Amino acid sequence: MHRKMKNVTQEQMAEALNLSVGFISQLERGICKVSLDTLANIIEYLDCSFTDILEDSYQKSDGYQQEQFNSLYVSLPPDDQRIMYNIMEVYVKSKQ
Fold this sequence. Notes:
mainly alpha, 434 Repressor (Amino-terminal Domain), 0% strand, elongated
């Protein structure tokens, strides 16, 4: 999000940080991990804070995790889906 706000392309950012465009793309989609050094370089390049990046990442990860969960759940046989639902229901009730 910050990259787009700065009107910087993935190619420009990748070149400036000596990273691949594919890595930048995966990073923005939340499907890869980043070292602290690389994260610090990105923050410096985008002139933003760690909190800004973390908030963006947190917002994206919610939807991503939901998609992953749904994909796993529907891949289960119906009996296993019922078992997983019951386990989640018990877990949620125990947290309340």
